[in-house]
Amino acid sequence: MKMPKSFLAFALFLIWPLLLSVNSVAQACTIYVSNKCPFPIWPATAPNQGQPVIASGGFYLPPGQTKVIRAPGTWSGRIWARTSCNFNVNSNSNTGWNPACETGDCDGQLECNGKIGQPPVTLVEISLQVDKSKPSFYDVSIVDGYNLPVSITTKPSATNCRIGGCTKNLKNVCPEELQVKNGRGEVVACKSACLAFNRDEFCCRNQYGSPEKCKPSVYSKIFKDACPWYFSYAFDSPPPLVNCPSDEYVITFCPSKWGSELTDT
């Protein structure tokens, strides 16, 4: 029996929100942000231009906890962790002291709302493509410096899709001229030579703006030795960039027991 057009239109009206919902799920990726540090961290996100803010731009993550983030299937941006933060939790304000965090601070705000964290900080850089025929890329950069080790993998995990943590605690081997210390004299981060000295040969710019002219420095070699899976300077080669299409990604800060050796287990 042929259905009247009015009935078909009404039926489509009823199921259209469901179809949109299914499509929305299909066009989304899940990012698991895990804290294996023995102290709390405040992960933050910053979208690339034209992309939405995800996870409100920042959140609190206690030790041993994981935050599940839903991101658009074509999202691109940065994720990092802030440490030793002090936000005003007794009011409705999104801000605390300025800076509120020892490392990675974004104008004293809990929710960074698109702001980039203050370097030096270990940066996870992601460019997703829900269409599996197109590449999804991700990497970890310490080109501007380092504050915490981090690993990335897909779910389920695959060896070729994994970026490991660090083989050494970079803060323990950080040259004095690159060290960032807190008020107690503890090294909380390590600047890159570019960030510390702002010189062209370290920043790979101007006359040094090509792989042929900009070579690894004594400082970037220290970074690379401690964290071999990360970008240690702008023209790091071969590029430690991973291309693995997936619907689920796992980002783990302090991916093993905190100590002098920081490797995945």
TrEMBL record:
Provide the transmembrane region boundaries: none
Q: What protein does this entry describe?
A: Thaumatin-like protein
Q: Which cysteines are joined by disulfide bonds?
A: 37-254, 85-101, 106-112, 161-244, 166-227, 174-190, 194-203, 204-214
| Residues making up the signal peptide according to the UniProt record | 1-28
Q: Which protein family is named in the record?
A: Belongs to the thaumatin family.
Alphabetically sorted, this entry's keywords are: Disulfide bond, Signal
Q: Which SMART domains match?
A: THN
Q: Which Pfam families match?
A: Thaumatin
PROSITE patterns attached to this UniProt entry? PROKAR_LIPOPROTEIN (PS51257), THAUMATIN_2 (PS51367)
